[in-house]
Every structure is written in structure tokens, then in C-alpha cells.
UniProtKB/TrEMBL annotation, chain A:
CDD domains: TM_PBP1_LivH_like. It is found in: Cell membrane. InterPro entries: ABC_transp_permease (IPR001851), BCAA_transport_permease (IPR052157). It holds the Pfam family BPD_transp_2. GO terms for cellular component: plasma membrane. The keyword Transmembrane helix applies. The chain crosses the membrane at residues 7-29, 35-55, 67-88, 157-174, 203-222, 242-263, 275-295. The keyword Cell inner membrane does not apply. GO terms for biological process: amino acid transport. This is Amino acid/amide ABC transporter membrane protein 1 (HAAT family). Keywords: Amino-acid transport, Cell membrane, Membrane, Transmembrane, Transmembrane helix, Transport. It comes from Roseateles toxinivorans. Belongs to the binding-protein-dependent transport system permease family. LivHM subfamily.
Length: 309, 354
């Protein structure tokens, strides 16, 4: 039982991190109808920027304070992501208005090659580490209930808390600010939003910037777990089943989908994996999402698509 | 002046229904085939065969297969690499396990296995649409990658995980030198391209296109979605499977699952989109573009005498590749095939503008 709980909590924590990346997909899809395959490259780019700036800024300015360096590096990386967002709008999406979904998807794939190349060219292509002072020691919970307690990684708990805080902040931003309202309007209906005077271009830049910030946070958390390297962008592939399971247009869907996938993946690896030769977590999430979609084609919380002739 | 159909009257249904109704087109195609089958093998150096021509021919075949699914039937698939892998590994198993199995037959049987897998993973397309389907087809990609890596039976219990074929021959003629490989692939591709062209002109092709343009409307006028979508998946994965077999047997010779990774799927999708959705000719253009571009970008610094470290060069390459893809999508979202047809239209009027 303790072992099961441990796996369950581990899965929930991992799921929280998946939802963080899935959130980036959903934000952009909602506002611009683009399925952004470059999200993984954005995570890598942001993490590389963060890692390198936290090295470079103390050297440039000649101080030695880790917290200050991290704060400044975060700001610098955020500026980088905003530049990326602006460039995406200016040179890619702005030119492809009214194209089909698959053309836009291919364009973001092209952009992801570009981001991969430029990110590694500017910031270097070795393995870097991000040290934001997250504790790495494990803790034991519920020691009074079970013998030996339940082993939980403290780093995971912090990561999950940060993710939850970010989601709450985003929800507030979307529900309570006027920009958020404009974003929701654009997500609902581009033309109607434009006709009441919401500037589409600016909204897209804002959405891509927010997605870039989410990518930055995801990059920091994943980067401090795994190290910043090229394989970081593969994490985005793990978030894809989360997105379709939760529904492409739903923020809560991304969170709950992430939790389901995280838990399902962990438990299946432990309880089914040994019978199938191991390593099944690579495809299990996809097959799970696929089977689920057979029942509900629009995902858990996605908008129901009604076809008319 | 020269490219127009004036004076070419059709006096029978047969003449009206031929693939290339304009005489100049027929001459151009005959010339093209003559160049591909006779002039190129005589003139091209060996490096050209290995690096460009053989991959180009095989990937065009795969692109044709994918184009049937994406371009004609409108079902986005990101699992093409998986269907290629199924074709290659199934052909390998037929080749190794059955004594004296002819090469062409094992390739075709490999294609048949890919068909089965394709139809299986095509079933969700009856419920799921668009981008959801695109992501769902990734399930095929990861599942197939995993099974060829982990299930030892498929790789004939090879200890390293990679499989090797040797001593290829067709009807007693060995296929060893690059020229022979090229001719073998080219023959198969020509046959399949003609077959595909005929399929998409026929009743079933029209059903696919109706499905692509609006599936509900197509169902209303009596096209069965199940039949149309699953046949598209079947035909597409058959062709892709044969292409996978060729890629493994003829181009690589010895391979492991990484040869058919998700990058391959993306690469093929790029070919189809840059070449032109819903165009057999476009598949060739797209394949040529995507095969030649990286080689060209790779050679460029050497030609221009710019000293560059390999890491910088590879990053620059991926930057330029990405930028060019975006550029192409912006300039011509309908692909190179569209440019081709615009050129043909212009040619009909040339040199008199009216």
C-alpha cells in the first residue's frame, strides 16, 4: 500500500509537470488556433537562456549573489521569450492568417527547427545546469500510518507547487483582467473580437509571450531536474497526449489530463511494464489518450464539435 | 505556343480518359522516363546515387503513399515512420524465415503487413478528426518504435538490435551496385506512381477527395466514411510499407528502429506539404527538395571557403532549414506542385499574352 501511494504521488507530481507544458499548447491553440509544435523548442530555448544568463550576468556585472543572478537571468530569459513571441507573430503567423491548420502546424515545426538551431548557436550546446536552489533531499510522509512511510521527493513537491501557483495566476489573469477578457474573446471568435476593436496582432503577441513564460517556468523546473540539454525538448512529446486527452481548448483539461497521464504512466510502468518487457511509458500515454478519444472524440473538456453541411 | 492542346481531338472514350490527355505532356513524360532510366545511370557518378538519387526515389514513393492519406483523404498522420518500419521489418522477417523468398514478394508482403497495421491505427479516424487525429497517430509511431526495440522475435533475436540483409537479387540479377539499386527502386516507384495516379483519378479517389473536402456532406450523398477512410489508410500504408522495405533493404542494408523514428514521419510530412497536398507530381518535388536541401546546406560552407566548426554548421543548417520551410509555407502554401501548374498555365499562353 505504501508502495502504491508512493507511485501514485510520484505520478501526480510528474503529471503536474506535464500539464505545465500542456498549458503552453492550450493557451496558443485557444487564442490563435495554432497547434504549436514549437512548444518543446521553446522550453529548450527558455531553459538554455536561463541557464546561460545565470552564468553570464554575474560575470558581466561582477557580483556574486546567486539569488540576484537567478532573478536577473529569469528577467533576461523572459525578455528573450517575448522577442521570440514577437518574431513568431511578425514573421510566421502574421503571414499565414487564414491558412489551414496543418499548414500552421508545419510552420511551427519549421519554427521549432529554427529555435533549436539558434538557441544552441547563441547559448551553446553542452549540458548546463540550472540551480534555483530547489532542495533535492527526499522526505518521508505518513510515517505513523505505514511502516517506513511514503518516500516523496521534495523537489517534486516544490515543482508541483510552482506549477499550481502558475496555473492559478493564469486563471486570475484570464478571468479578472481586461487583457484576459480580450484573450478569451479572441479565443471564442476571431472575427467578432476584431469587429469590436480588439487588436488581433497584439493579442497574439501577448498569448505567445504568456506561452513563452510558461515554457520558461517549465524549462526551469525540468532543467533543474534533468539538466539543460537537447533532449529537454522531447518532454514536449510527452505532453501531447495530455493535450488531446484534456481537450485542445481547455485549461482545466490540461491540468486534469496531465494528472491522469502522469498517474497512468507511473502505475502502468510498475504494474504492467514487467510483463511486457519494460519501457512501455513511451507509448502508454498515447494509447491511453487514443482509447479515451474513441469514447469522447473532443477530449475530456474540449468543446463539442458539431458538424453541419 | 508549343504547349497547348489545339487540334488534338478526342474521338473515343478511351482517348478522353487517358492519364495524360495532352500530347505534349505524354512526350514530356516519355522523355523524363527515358532520362531517368537511361541517361542518368550512364552519366551520374556513384556518389550521386548513394547520397541523393536512391534516397530521393524511395522517399518519393513514401511521400506518394502519405499524400494519398493526407492530401487526398485529408487524414493527417504523424505515424508514417512507423508504417515504414512495419514494412521493413515484416519484409525482413519474410525474407529471413522463409527459404528462397523472392525479394519483390517479401517487399510486397511487408507492404501487406503495413496495410494491416495502418488499418488498425486508422480505425480511430472514424471518430477523431483533424489535429486530434494527428496526435493520436503518434501512438502508432511510439508503439511501433517500442515493439521493434523490445520484442526480440521481430529482429530475429539479433543481439545488437539491428538487422542486416544481403545478397539481394531479382530474377537472378543481383542488386548490388548503386546503379542496379537505383534502377530497381525506380522501376517500383514508376509502377506505384502510375497506380496511385490511376487510383486517385478513379471512383475511389473521388470518394477520398469528397471525404477530405467535407466528410458530413460526403456521407450524405452516399459515400461510406468507414470504407473511404479505411481504404485510404490501407492504400497509403501499403505504399509507405513498400517504401520502408526498400529503404531498409536497398538503401540502408542494415538498420535499427531509429531509422524510422518520428523525425522520419515529420520529414515525410514536410515533403508532402512542400511538394503540394493532393498531387502525385508534388510528392516527387517535395522529396527532391527535402533530400537535396540538407546536403546542399552541408556543402555550402566548404564551397564558400568559410571555416566553420561542425557544431556551428549543424546548428546553422537546422536554422536555415527551419527558416526555409516557413518561408516556403508563406510564399506558396499550396506547395511546389502549385507553382508547377501555374507555370503550365503560363506556358499555354506564351509567347502571346492574350
Amino acid at each position: 500500500m505504501a508502495f502504491f501511494l508512493e507511485a501514485l504521488i510520484g505520478g501526480l507530481m510528474a503529471g503536474m509537470l506535464y500539464s505545465l507544458i500542456a498549458l503552453g499548447f492550450v493557451l496558443i491553440y485557444k487564442a490563435s488556433g495554432v497547434f504549436n509544435f514549437a512548444q518543446g523548442a521553446m522550453v529548450l530555448f527558455a531553459a538554455l537562456a536561463m541557464a546561460r544568463f545565470s552564468e553570464w550576468i554575474p560575470q558581466w556585472l561582477g557580483f556574486d549573489n546567486k539569488i540576484l543572478a537567478n532573478v536577473l537571468a529569469f528577467a533576461a530569459a523572459a525578455v528573450c521569450m517575448m522577442i521570440v513571441a514577437w518574431a513568431m507573430e511578425r514573421w510566421v503567423l502574421g503571414k499565414l492568417v487564414n491558412q489551414e491548420g496543418i499548414t500552421l502546424l508545419m510552420a511551427t515545426l519549421g519554427a521549432s527547427y529554427f529555435l533549436d538551431g539558434s538557441g544552441q548557436m547563441i547559448f551553446g550546446s553542452d549540458i548546463y545546469k540550472i540551480d534555483v536552489g530547489m532542495p533535492k533531499d527526499p522526505v518521508f510522509l505518513l510515517e505513523s500510518v505505514f511502516q517506513g512511510g511514503v518516500l516523496v521527493n521534495k523537489e517534486d513537491v516544490y515543482a508541483a507547487l510552482i506549477a499550481a501557483a502558475l496555473v492559478a495566476a493564469l486563471a486570475l489573469f484570464f478571468q479578472k483582467t481586461s487583457t484576459g477578457r480580450a484573450l478569451r474573446a479572441v479565443a471564442d471568435d476571431h472575427q467578432a473580437a476584431q469587429s469590436i476593436g480588439i487588436p488581433l496582432n497584439r493579442i497574439w503577441i501577448i498569448v505567445w509571450s504568456v506561452a513563452g513564460l510558461v515554457a520558461l517556468v517549465a524549462g526551469i523546473i525540468w532543467g533543474s531536474k534533468l539538466g539543460v540539454q537537447f533532449s529537454l525538448q522531447l518532454v514536449a512529446l510527452k505532453a501531447l497526449p495530455v493535450v488531446i486527452l484534456g481537450g485542445l481548448t481547455s485549461v482545466p483539461g490540461a491540468i486534469i489530463g496531465g494528472l491522469i497521464i502522469g498517474v497512468g504512466e507511473k502505475l502502468s510502468e510498475i504494474y504492467i511494464g514487467p510483463y511486457m518487457g519494460g519501457g512501455i511509458e513511451i507509448w502508454f500515454a498515447y494509447v491511453m489518450a487514443l482509447l479515451f478519444l474513441l469514447v469522447r472524440p473532443q477530449g475530456l473538456f474540449g468543446e463539442k464539435i458539431i458538424d453541419r453541411v | 505556343m508549343f504547349y497547348r492542346e489545339n487540334g488534338q481531338f478526342k474521338t473515343s472514350y478511351k482517348a478522353d480518359e487517358q492519364i495524360f490527355p495532352i500530347r505534349q505532356d505524354r512526350i514530356a513524360i516519355a522523355l523524363l522516363l527515358a532520362i531517368a532510366f537511361i541517361a542518368v545511370p550512364l552519366l551520374a557518378p556513384e556518389y550521386l546515387f548513394r547520397a541523393i538519387l536512391i534516397p530521393f526515389v524511395i522517399l518519393s514513393l513514401a511521400a506518394i503513399g502519405l499524400n494519398i492519406l493526407v492530401g487526398y483523404c485529408g487524414q493527417i498522420s504523424l505515424g508514417t515512420g512507423a508504417f515504414m518500419a512495419v514494412g521493413a521489418y515484416a519484409a525482413y522477417n519474410f525474407n529471413v524465415r522463409i527459404e528462397g523468398m523472392p525479394l519483390v514478394l517479401s517487399l510486397l508482403l511487408g507492404g501487406a503487413c503495413a496495410t494491416l497495421v495502418g488499418v488498425l491505427f486508422g480505425i480511430p479516424s472514424l471518430r477523431i478528426k483533424g489535429l486530434y487525429l494527428a496526435v493520436a497517430t503518434l501512438a502508432a509511431q511510439f508503439f511501433v518504435d517500442w515493439s521493434f526495440l523490445r520484442i526480440k522475435w521481430f529482429t530475429n533475436d539479433s543481439s545488437s538490435g539491428s538487422v542486416t540483409v544481403s545478397g539481394l537479387q531479382v530474377l537472378g540479377i543481383p542488386i548490388e551496385s548503386p546503379v542496379q539499386k537505383y534502377l530497381f527502386c525506380l522501376t517500383l516507384v514508376t509502377v506505384f506512381a502510375l497506380m496511385a495516379k490511376n487510383l486517385v483519378r478513379g471512383a475511389i479517389g473521388r470518394e477520398w477527395m469528397a471525404m477530405r473536402d467535407m466528410d458530413v456532406a460526403a456521407a450524405v450523398i452516399g459515400i461510406r466514411p468507414v470504407y473511404a477512410k479505411l481504404t485510404a489508410f490501407a492504400v497509403s500504408s501499403f505504399i509507405v510499407g513498400v517504401a520502408g522495405g526498400l529503404w531498409g533493404f536497398v538503401h540502408l542494408g542494415s538498420w535499427e528502429p531509429a531509422a524510422f523514428s518520428i523525425d522520419r514521419s515529420f520529414q515525410l510530412l514536410f515533403m508532402v506539404i512542400i511538394g503540394g497536398l493532393g498531387s502525385i507530381m508534388g510528392s516527387f518535388f517535395g522529396a527532391a527538395f527535402i533530400v537535396i536541401l540538407p546536403i546542399f546546406l552541408n556543402q555550402l560552407p566548404a564551397w564558400l571557403n568559410i571555416p566553420m566548426s561542425t557544431a556551428t554548421a549543424s546548428h546553422l543548417e537546422s536554422m536555415i532549414f527551419g527558416a526555409l520551410i516557413v518561408f516556403f509555407l508563406i510564399v506558396e502554401p499550396h506547395g511546389l506542385a502549385r507553382l508547377w501548374s501555374i507555370a503550365k498555365e503560363k506556358l499555354r499562353l506564351w509567347p502571346f499574352p492574350h
